[in-house]
Amino acid sequence: MPLIDWTDTLSVGISSIDDQHKKLIGLINKLNEAMKAGKAREIMAGVLKEVIDYTVYHFSTEEKYMAQVDYLATVAHVNEHRQFAKKALDLQRDFTAGKTMITLEVMNFLKDWVSKHIQGTDKKYSAAFIAKGIK
After folding, report:
1. What tens digit of pLDDT does each residue of 31-58 get?
2. Correct CATH for 13-129 of 3.40.50.720, 3.40.1170.60, 1.20.120.50, 1.20.1050.10
């Protein structure tokens, strides 16, 4: 059973971003499955790296669009991205160093952050992006 199910409540109405969100959710679900199955640290480290790398790619896409449309809330939105990226990189560093494990608590943090960020912060840019032709 996936940790996060894609539903229409997560859609921002922009197919390119929805597709990226779906991919990110899929990677988080993959990490969750690896954790539940007790996969080796090396496998989990690789999946965690995939999640972080794709998140950075996704954030850069959103930030590029924000610049294109001169989105008014860019600074606050980018700040949320940076805070999440820092937490994710700290987690990766600690996991790689053997200081922490991928736990249900970590997975719930990822689930909650992604869901709340999409449904709250990301949905706020939908109208501005769509008005400028971003699909």
Report:
1. 999 999 998 888 989 999 999 999 999 9
2. 1.20.120.50
